[in-house]
Every structure is written in structure tokens, then in C-alpha cells.
Amino acid sequence: MKALKLIQKLCYLASMILIINLIPINTKAEVIKSDNIDIIILFKDDCIDENVKSFIINSGGNIVQDLSEIGGLEVKCKTDLIPNIQTYSTIQSIAPNHDIDVFTEKTVKLSQQGNSDGESDADIYNMYQWDIKEVTDNGKSFQLESGNHDIVVGIIDSGVDVNHPDLVSNLLGGENLVPADFKGDNTETGDPNDIIDRLGHGTIVAGNIAANGRTKGVAPDIGFKSYRIFNKDGKTNASIASSAIIKAVDDGASVINLSFGGYDLKGKCYWTDSKTGVKYKMGDDMAEYSLYKRAIKYAIKKGVTVVTAAGNEV
User: Fold this and answer.
1) CA-CA distance, 312 to 314, in Å (whole number)?
2) Structurally, how many domains does the chain consist of?
3) By residue range, what is the domain housing residue 72?
4) Same domain flag for 93 and 200
5) CB of 159 within 8 A of CB of 198?
6) pLDDT tens, residue by residue, 227-275
7) Does residue 114 sit within a domain?
8) Does any domain span residue 227?
9) Torsion-angle region of residue 43: left (phi > 0), alpha (psi -120 to 50) or beta?
10) Residues 248/300, Cβ–Cβ less than 8 Å
11) What is the DSSP letter of 312?
12) Which phi-psi region, left, alpha or beta, contains residue 187 (left: φ > 0; alpha: ψ -120 to 50)?
């Protein structure tokens, strides 16, 4: 138990190192440019109303994701269905499913090596990882606890470099949650085994937590699983992120790390149909934001520690 608490603290401290972009979004008068809109429907009491699902399907809509664990649906439908959906008393709120972004990372070559062969254990840690050295007190924390594979960190991010020599010994699998053709990208096939990092961000986060080689993470012997939620352009949304949290919990993660952008919600939410000019009032309770919070609460209720990064842009 002491080891778990220490690892949780170390993971928390490591996440504070990351530079995270928080994206303010004013949802007032959001314009929808296509016939079908992507919305989140949140139900009262965390319980999905099957009558609502049936109505949407029978009206030509599509259920994209059924998040029954937290009482939410992702739906694509025509805008004129919104008033009819809102008539159901079981619905708490409806909101657009906005993009969530993550930073792309720039890869640079090291200007020098610590040793002549350039392959010595921890040479980059000793020379360059000032941030991790601060967190680990120059590696002294490794002597107290360096982690083990009985404790698994679920890293929800852009995937991981599965062949990285500093990570392979601690990588215990994971899953891709990005759906096929997400954002029109036909390279996204929906393959659940495709956790390959297209951006670099997820690999950096994994390294901060669990690297064990020329670089060191805060817990160099801990196990981790990678859950990919970002496409090559660094885009995801609340329903994908929430489904990844649920998946990591159900896979037995002890800690979940969320090191990516978010959003501030300001004002009332409206949708305007660009073809008809009709404005739809969505309400004050933002369903996508609440869905995300419900997923985190789901993890906490299951005894999982959820670590998020504190952004430096507001």
C-alpha cells in the first residue's frame, strides 16, 4: 500500500511537469455546417433511456457510442431532431461534441552523449532530465520504491512508441479508442491494437512515468498501458476520452494519467443550423463536460487514482 501511494504521488508530480494547453471555448451560437450534427446526450441518474435511443434510430439518427456505465450517448442526427429529443424527461442535457486537442511534440537530436558509446544506462537521465531528477531527488526515490508490474498506470494520450528501448520492458499493452475514419482520416481503421504514437506526446508522458534505460521515469519499474485517443492531428473528443477512462478502469489500472488539453465553458449553449438559420437552445449544463466528469467519478468509485495535468494557459 505504501508503494502504491508513493507511485501515485510520483505520477502526480510528473504530470505537473508537462506543458498542457487548456482551450477556452465559448459555446454560444455554435454554427453547425453539415446536415448531421455530433452531440452528447446525458441522462439523469446515470441511466440511459432506451426509448430515446429507439426514437433517434427510427428518426434516421445514429448512435455512435453507448456509454451506459455513465449514462451518456454520442449521437449523430439532424438538427431538427433536437427539440424532440429534449422533450424526454429522462434527459439531463445535450451539447455539441467539441474537439479536445493535445500538443504535438518536436523531436530533436541530442547535442552530445554522456559516454563514448552513447548507450550507457541512464546517461541521458544524468545529463538532461533535470525535471525528473527534481521529482526523484536525484534518483534517491528509486531506492525507496521504483514500481512494479502489479501496479499499472493507464496512460490516456496519443499512443506510444512500442519499440522504444526505454519503454518496452514496462509496456503491458493498451488499446486504440480512435474510431475508423475519425475526422475524415482514412488511415484510422478503428483497429483496437493500433496504439502507435503519431505525435510523440504520449511517448513523452510514458517516458516521464515509466522509462527505464538511457532515460528514467519517476517509477522506472512500473507497468503501464497505453490508450490512444488522438489522431495524427492531435484531435479527440469527450466521448472518446470518456470511453478510454472506462476501458482503463475495467482493465484494472491502478492510476490513470490524463495529460492533454481541455476547455472552459462560458455562457449558454446554442446551435444554429447554417442552412435554415434556426437556433436551438441546448441549455446551461454542458453534457460533454459532465460526461467527462462522470467518467472520472466512475474511475474514483472503482478505487482508481486519476491524475490530470495543471495547464499553464487560461
Assistant:
1) 7
2) 2
3) 30-99
4) no
5) yes
6) 999 999 999 999 999 999 999 999 999 999 998 866 555 566 777 777 7
7) no
8) yes
9) beta
10) no
11) S
12) alpha
